[in-house]
Amino acid sequence: MVQGQRRKVDQKSFEEIRAENEAQMARIRENLFASRAYPDPHWYCNACLHITPRDWDGYALGYKTAGDILVQHVIDTRRDQDILVYPIGFLYRQYLELRVKELIFIGSRLLDKRTDVPTHHRLVDLWPEARRITEEVFWDSSSNTRLDEIEARMNELSRLDPHSDAFRYPEDKHGSPTLREARQINLKQLRDVIQGVSLVLDGSRLGMWEALDAKQSVMADYAEYRDEMRAEMMAEYAEYRDEMQADMMAKYRADVREHYQDP
Which residues, in sequence order, are CB contacts of 60 under 8 Å at separation 6+? Predict the structure, then answer.
């Protein structure tokens, strides 16, 4: 009896489904990107953009967090893994690409090299530059093993998805099937390995940002001291110049009076 009642509650009539679909499709006329003000019950869904300038961290963490949430959904429900594998793979790859590019961005400025951030998506080319900068910034040979392991994972991912399109499209630009080397991907394994990589990359970018902030603070203090010293020197020079001009004018006047007073 209870099962029959539950089945009756769960089932919807064609009219009910049609009415729900019509209501949902009616929202097509609304803007995609809008905000809702309190007391709208969903005001808390407003996402704030541009919290910090050049928000590399926000973008990277956004992709990784989304991947983590989707993997946890598969673990909790034991379903949807065969379709969620594609966005999950892309989200984690995009996270890695952003982190690597951020290391290049920060490290080059920390080293006064001002290297432009590459616009391509080839991890196999991006990682060596990021690693070189990371090693130059931290001078820690003990981290080489971890960096070697990360490089192996970057190469593994690059072989499967060299141009960041394999998890987005079933075919590449030439019409060839993507992800041909993969048959099964354990999403929990993927998440756990990415988490290990993220500890190293996130720690490196945090250390670089702190070092860059400290360097900029020192440079700002030096610039302030330089400006103060320059202003003090200019003031002393102006005072000395005025005194010299006054002395010269006094001497000149004395010489003129002496000259015209001579018989």
Answer: 95, 98, 99, 102
Q: Which residues form the domain of 182?
A: 67-224
Position 194 in a domain: yes
**In the block, which residue shows the tokens 């080489």?**
144
Residue owning tokens 């990021």: 130
- Residues 98/59, Cβ–Cβ less than 8 Å: yes
Q: Is residue 239 part of a domain?
A: no
Show pLDDT as tens, one digit a residue, over the chain (263 residues): 445 444 544 578 888 999 999 999 999 999 999 999 999 999 999 999 988 767 899 999 999 999 999 999 999 999 999 999 999 999 999 999 999 999 999 999 999 987 789 999 999 999 999 999 999 998 776 678 899 999 999 999 999 999 999 999 999 999 999 999 899 999 999 999 999 999 999 999 999 989 888 877 777 666 666 777 787 788 878 888 888 888 888 887 777 777 776 55
Assigned domain for 165 exists: yes
Q: Which residue has the tokens 């905000």?
A: 35
Helices (H) and strands (E) in the chain, counts: 7, 0
Count of positions (residues) in the chain: 263
Q: Whose CA is closest to 71, among 182, 161, 186? A: 186
Q: Is residue 40 part of a domain?
A: no
- Number of structural domains in the chain: 1
pTM, rounded to two decimals: 0.78
